[in-house]
Protein: D-TA family PLP-dependent enzyme
Amino acid sequence: MPTIHDLDTPSILIDAARAEANIARAQAHANKNGLKLRPHIKTHKLPYWAKKQVAAGAVGITCQKIGEAEVMADAGLADIFLPYNILGRAKLERLLALHRRVTLSVTADSLETLEGLAATFTDAGHRLPVLVECDTGMGRCGVQTAGEAVALARRIDKAGGLAFGGLMTYPAVGRAAEAEAWLADARQALAASGLACERISSGGTPDMWRSSDASVVTEYRPGTYIYLDRYQVAKGVGTLDDCALTVLSTVVSHPTPTRAILDAGSKALSSDTLGLADFGELLGVSGARVTGLSEEHGTVTLSGDGKLRIGERVRVVPDHCCVVTNLFNEVNLIDGDKVLETLPVAARGRTG
Amino acid sequence: MPTIHDLDTPSILIDAARAEANIARAQAHANKNGLKLRPHIKTHKLPYWAKKQVAAGAVGITCQKIGEAEVMADAGLADIFLPYNILGRAKLERLLALHRRVTLSVTADSLETLEGLAATFTDAGHRLPVLVECDTGMGRCGVQTAGEAVALARRIDKAGGLAFGGLMTYPAVGRAAEAEAWLADARQALAASGLACERISSGGTPDMWRSSDASVVTEYRPGTYIYLDRYQVAKGVGTLDDCALTVLSTVVSHPTPTRAILDAGSKALSSDTLGLADFGELLGVSGARVTGLSEEHGTVTLSGDGKLRIGERVRVVPDHCCVVTNLFNEVNLIDGDKVLETLPVAARGRTG
Structure:
């Protein structure tokens, strides 16, 4: 069996046992709180893990792009939620084809999106569930008021081939209570209009752990929880020892006593820090942070006792693991130093 | 012939005439200043453009990864410079294989890197030129003093299968004069040691235009000049009308009068701003900037007269075009609205 010493650098390592433990922990939390889990596959982009998540008890998966959903459907995933406004004939045709082979649901936050869906999905015997996306504080997509949510829900309800599927939000991190109040109001407004709202879907790994069975949320879409990263550790979701994804890298230069250069730059670690200081940290090298990136170079500043030598291999915990996954063609599942399996990142680069 | 209206979004559009004009302009500048041009293919990652660059007069190309060089060698590019410390048996073996089929040169900035090269390249009849990388102010790789440069050059000169190839730097942007002085000193120190330094290679698109025939630099490795981007425009290299690469995107949501959401997020535009405010700007939409990104959403703030409507397609000029190229599997060469050709990004994702 190959070991990580046989791998080229930079490479992604996934500690399989840690990922499995992270899956189990989230599923147990969801079960305890009567919450349906619908993991977002953006983090791993692998049928391998999507299947494990469903086997552990998830009701289905979440994809953000039709291309990702197609990969997952091809791999046998049967229940897919696509919380995105799908617009344009080409994408709508692909969505219709998906609807014919998996249990599909989508979202909309405007009449324009609904018109396209209503014109494409016309089979009253096989309606497409459409949830209304709500902006509960994130400031991204979503209707701004409960009144708008009701108006769109009515429009969905009237469309021959669509079914009102509930409410969906991606809450601002740390503002779950605000989202909760928003959604409760909207549910009440829907009820007053005679529309039942059986599914309320929320997302974001950090706030999942705050949800309880008193919540109006019925379904949760965590993504990062499977691998975790520096951002999640900063949010208190776990420790560095829970992080399943690391980037194996080689020290290629050591120009000054406090500066070393890795062969992992922004093309391997990404420039997405999610607001953290630094771009990553080195496991087992005290005080070693990636303080600068160019495309093929990671600048490590040594501010503690840790030492590095040229040619040495190190493992970097990135700030945001989801975007790292999208930069590599394959990942290596490991157990200690053993490489269990090398998997192509099947849903990588599905931009459309 | 297909048009851009037939393309899925997000997609990369390359205005072919602009790219050709950018190639011609840089080559003319290099010719006028007696400078050899050796374009960095990281920006386009396409044999198509590498061949055009060589046809226009470039002496060869620059690649940052062996995987990129292999793609280019396969496509027939014959002279490749790899300004990177290559370490480890697997990469050294691949480097040796490359040396047997193209005119190759590399760099080193440490004895450790040189030991590996010297042990791998042993054919005195077919020496590998090794340039010494110098840190002339960038604070990345490179020897710190002229004395160190001389010591490494001597070591190269003594190795049976290596040849001292000169000096290489990637200067800090805007500090070309400092780099120039550093390199002049080092060249003098080499001469005092009896080592001729016939090749001095520098890089970076913005400062290329400041180089003149009075420079000690003999070769230049610009990358971004072929496409240009918001960063280069900010540096005065060209105008938005010179930018060849744009990201075609669809407005998928318009939750408030001043906020619209694109289907191009960090997976399409990247989070790499190179220090600019905002992540991109929309062509032809006055006051429309991409002010926020998540993976699949780009948040546009409308601060001027420009209006957008849901379903509309827009073209975004990104901050840093090189990293955008690496996020897409293919690019579309266009002439106005016509799609001339769709090319796979052959050297995309070559991390190793």
